[in-house]
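subagent[fold] <- orchestrator: predict structure for attached chain, return tokens only, no commentary.
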Amino acid sequence: MEYSPPPFFKRGPSLITRFTFFSVLSVCLLVSDARFNYLHLVRQGFGAMVYPIQSLASMPGVLAGRIGAFFVTQSQLQRENEQLRRVELHNSAAIQVQKSLEQENQRLRQLLAMRERLPRDFIAAEILYGHRDPFTRRVVIDRGIQNGVTSGQAVVDETGVIGQVTRVFPWVSEVTLITDKEQAVPIQVVRSGLRGVTFGIGYDGTLELRFMPVNADIQNGDLLVTSGIDGTYPTGLPVATVTNVERNAAYAFARITCTPAAGVNRSRQVMVVSTTDKLPENPAAEEEPGPKGKKVKR
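subagent[fold] -> orchestrator:
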């Protein structure tokens, strides 16, 4: 009888067999978990068992991060406090100068017997949501008739004009932004005193200053503020900054593009200007006799 000694290393299935078996098993597990979610409880169990180990392993890094953040926050707060002190000192000086200028302006108006402007009152409001029509630039604020808001009032934020109240409801109001196609704002160039009208073009971030002659004294960087000649917007509110001026001798008007000064598409808290300057009433149109004895207005 022949006898063969046992192999030195005991061998199991071949590599191809094991590879095929585990590949099929993996595919079956993937399909069953994706279709029937069988392994959800298994994953939860393994996650519950591994979580304490993960917490212990990440604890040194978390502690080091918290300690570093504490010292960074302390130094950052100290820098911010120092910066705020400097800003407060600068603002206090500016406020003193402004008060002095207001008093001087009041004395000059009294000296020249000019009409004094009424103080402006503001109604704080918050933007609730935008308009449903994507082709308009309108928002709805949380103030209405019950809060003293009326149609036509100007709406501003901390940097300039946002728009104008166009529709008023008992508890909310609709505000048309200055970038809307149907919105126009009378403005004045601070540097040169030139007056004009800005128009929205239908999307945020850009305004047009139209009907300005080619030789008009306006340039990039000029600040545009409300002129107040329409009786709606108070005088001196920032509206936009000139960003591009295109002059072509073939056209009668220059093409002027502006950037709104206010956060038209990002502000959340706004203010409604509830008091504007009172203007004298327009004189009644005089009547003249027409060619056939009829009276016409001029």
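orchestrator: received. Logging for downstream: The mean pLDDT is 81. The domain at 122-273 is CATH 2.40.10.340 (Thrombin, subunit H).
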